[in-house]
Structures are given as C-alpha cells and as structure tokens.
Amino acid sequence: MLLSIKGLQAFIGQFHILQGVDLEVREGEVVVLLGRNGAGKTTTLRCIMGLVSSSAIEYCGQNIAGLPPYKIAAQGISLVPEDQGIFSTLTVAENMRVALRGSAREGQKNLDFVMSVFPDLKQAWHHKAGGLSGGQKQMLAIARGLINKNKLIMLDEPSKGLAPVLVNELGRVLQEIKSYTSILLVEQNFAFSKKIGDKFSILSDGKTIMAGLMADLIKDTEAQQKYLGVSTQ
Amino acid sequence: MDIFLILTINGLATGLLLFMMACGLSIIFGLMGIMNFAHGVFFVIGAYASTWTYALTGSFAVAMLAGIAAGAAIGWLTEITIIRPVYKNPIGQILITLGAFIVINELIKMIWGPNVIASPTPDLLQGEVNILGASISIYRIFIIVFSCLVALVVQLALTKTRLGMIVRAGVENAEMVNILGVNVRRVFALVFILGTGLAALGGTMIGPTMGQIGPFLSSQYLLLGFIVVVIGGMGSFIGSMVAGIIVGLANNYIIWLYPPAAMPLNIILMSVILLVKPTGLMGIKEAV
Q: At CB < 8 Å, which residues of chain A contact B?
C-alpha cells in the first residue's frame, strides 16, 4: 500500500473541512477523487502535501502528517495544483529547473520524456511562462510534476482549460507514467476520469461516501446521478 | 556643464549606494512578505564596522570585508531570533523589526557615542580626475564601478543559478516552491543574510563621501530605501537599481538648486510613479 488514509480530519481556521476521508492508493494505480464543488477534494490533496495540517496520513508505511511540504516532496510526492502555480516571470526552462530535484544531468532523461510528451513546451523553452496560453501553462504545470521520479503524483483538475485533443493526449500520458508511479486525480470531467481511473472515491461535505472500482461506478448510473450530477442521457 | 557632470557623478554614486541598501529590502519583502524596518541599521552597522576597522588596520579592503561580515552576522542573528517567530504575523513583523531598529541604533550610540565620527577617504582613492573640465572625485568613481560590479554578480547569481531561480520563483509563489521540494525557510534565511550583508556593504562606502558617519544615517537611509523599493517595485532587483539611480540623481540635482525641496521631491516622485504604475517600475506585486 502506497498511501493509506482513514477518517482524515482537517480544519482550516475554525472550519471543520474534512470530517472522515478514507483513501487508499496502491502502487501503479490511478485513483480518482470525485465529488461536487466544495466537497473537500482539493483540501485532501493539500493535506497529503503537508500544506494543511491534518490527522494521520500513512505513506509507504509511515505517518507523513506534520512534515513540511518540501520533505514530503522529497519522499516522492508531487502536487500539480488547480491554479497551476506557474512562475510567470521565469522562462519555461527555469520553471523546469526549479522543479527538478537533484542535478540537471540526472534530470535530462526525464526531461527528454516530458518534452516528447509536450512538444509545445520545447518550442517555448526560452519564453517567459507568463506569456504561454492557458493550455500551455497547464502542460507546463503537469510537466513540472513529471520531471522527478515520483511515487505519487497528485493532479488537481488537470483537464481544465485543455483543448479536447490535449485531454486525450493527457490521458495517454497518464496511462504511460502509470508504469512507475501512482496517480491521485481530482477531476470534474467524468468522461475523462472514467477512461483512466482504476478506482474512485466520492467525497461529500468532507466525508468519503462511496469508494470502489471505477468499472463498477461506470455501470452504476444511479450513483453517478446522485453524487456527481452526471446526466446519463 | 562641469557642475552638471559633477552632480551626475555624485548622484550616480549616491543612487548606487541607495540601491545596495534597498535591493535587500526589496527582495526580502518580495520573497518573504516581511517589511524589515530594521534594514536601515544594517547600512549603519556596515558604516561603523568599516570606519572602525579602517582606523585600526588602515586597509579599506579589510574594512569593507569587516563591514559586510558584521552586517551578515547580525542579519543572521536577527533572522533566527526575531524574524523566524513572526513569519506568519505581519503586525508582529512591523513591531519587532521597528523595535530591533531602535535597539540596534541605541546600541550603536552606546558603543560609538551619539556624535558623528570622522571617516576619511582611503589614501589610494583620494584626489580628483579631470573629465571634460570638471574635477571628479576618484572615490565616487570607485563607488560607481564597485557597486556596478556587485550588481552584476548578484544579477548573474539571480538569473543563472538554481538558487537564483528559486528566489525569483519564491517572490512570485513561495508555497509552490515548497511543493516542488525546496526548503523555502532556508532560502528565506539565506536571502535575509545576503540582503543585510549587501546593505552593510553599501554602508561601508558611505562614510568617505561625507567625511563622517553618525547614527542619523539609519533612519535617513531607511526612508530613502523604502522610497526606492516602492518606486522600483517590490521584489525586483533591477527595479531597485533603476529606482536607486533615479532617486540619487534627482536628489543631487535638486539639492544644488534648492535643498529644502529634496524630501518633498522624493515623495512626489514616488506618488507619481505609483499613480502611473501601481506595481512600481518593474514590480509584479502591488505595493499598496
């Protein structure tokens, strides 16, 4: 078991945001966190990254709750936040360099892989990231998450703002990196998440209300309608 | 014409010293969100440490090294004792850094006395050269050349090294830098020490331009430093250089024309630039 969370509790200020989130991610799995806006999906990711203090989070058999984010990152967890967190005054190359832990030479192989996936970034390599289009910024944010050999990559709404053709491409990339890393995905786009997810977990008001295999959820149109508001047509 | 040249050279020298003082203030604010009201005293620490060392050793190079070392060391102490506990407390930052400003300034008065002390120009840099009919002080030319070299080194470090990239990235979004696996706190501390060291280095050169130094320098240069930061833009290194030069030149011209107008001019300059460009000349964050 790579990541195991039971009854996760978290407060932001005086608000009890998470009141019992259960989540399990095994090696090589893609787990999708589903739920409506404000259900606590992003906060769950921020807790795992150490940005919000929370109850125990077991990662590789150890509790990582309470560690600062940079130490959690060093253990092989990366987060691509919803707002992308691009450094707009830095060039694309510099954004990648900041993200790369360790020496530039070691990173070259990963960099070649990432660039083969997102050739657009290669063209904009020496441009300021602030001048990129919305889709390119999203690609850069994801590329930064992939540059290190991580064990767990958390993506918050990666398909947001991407053209349909790029969403397909993103799906293909995520399938490819599954071989060496697990993925925890927050996604509103159910059509996209059902294609790449192995498992799902649905949050509502800060609690896990349903979890299981994605294949089962795809068949369960009633649950889709009830918890996700997905029209079944 | 010759008076114009003299004023310009003097203004450039003053401006570059202001820049050395202000660039640390600007980057510390941009990166850590900390308004360091104590920053002015590091300039004065540099001035006193170097004047004292120069009187003792007779070597200006050693005096400058002593100044920067004293500034960086006291900066480091300040960071771990009073800045670290108030990282997430903006009101606390203002009170504690303002308090540190007063305490360190009074300590300086206790050690060296409240009166000005003489700060002679080093022998090697004494005298004047004739440029286009104007006699220009060699010492001012030294300040200009040396400050530009320091600026170049810092600029190269900011643009070419990973640490520099991290600092620039952190000015924009410190949390994301942390997410990417960088210990931002350690970078903060390092930048704080470098910033106070640079302010002290600026301070080591101020004495000989006036022939004397005194505790009054800290408040005078802190105020000018803030004006430079606001004009240049929070967190912008090049911005504080441009702004330092603008303020330095404007002050020297106006003091020759009509001395009482100097401070009002600075305020007007700052207001106009904020009205036209609220982020300052080269800043990415709004100052007010």
A: 49, 51, 68-70, 73-74, 78-79, 81, 85, 87-90, 94-95, 97-99, 101, 144, 148
User: Is the CB of residue B183 less than 8 Å away from at least one CB of chain A?
Assistant: yes
DSSP reduced 3-state for A223: helix
Question: Could you report how far apart the first and last alpha carbons of chain A are, in Å?
Answer: 37
Nearest Cα of chain B lies from the Cα of A225 at a distance, in angstroms, of 35
Q: Where are the domains of chain A?
A: 1-76+154-233, 85-149
| B281 in a structural domain | no
B210-221 per-position pLDDT tens digit? 999 999 898 888
The 10s digit of each residue's pLDDT in B14-23 is 999 999 999 9
Nearest by Cα to A87 from B39, B180, B26: B180
pLDDT at B197 over 90: yes
- Answer whether residue B141 is part of any domain: yes
Q: Looking at the 3D structure of chain B, how many domains does it have?
A: 1
CA distance A112 to chain B (A): 19
User: Which residues constitute the domain of residue B172?
Assistant: 2-276
pLDDT band for B287, please (50, 70, 90 cuts): very low
Q: Hey, what CATH topology would domain A1-76+154-233 get?
A: Rossmann fold (3.40.50)
- Residue pair B17/B143 in contact by the 8 Å Cβ criterion: yes
| Chain B positions in Cβ-Cβ contact with residue A78 (cut-off 8 Å) | 179-180
CATH number at residue B185: 1.10.3470
- Count contacts between A and B (CB, < 8 Å): 62
Q: How many angstroms away from the CA of B279 is the closest CA of chain A?
A: 14
Backbone angles phi, psi at A104, to 5 degrees: -65, -30
Token match 């004495």: residue? B207
Average pLDDT of the residues in B243-260: 93
Could you give the dihedral angle defined by the CA atoms of residues A106, A68, A34 and A207, in that order, rounded to the nearest 10 degrees? 160
- Residue A233's pLDDT is 47
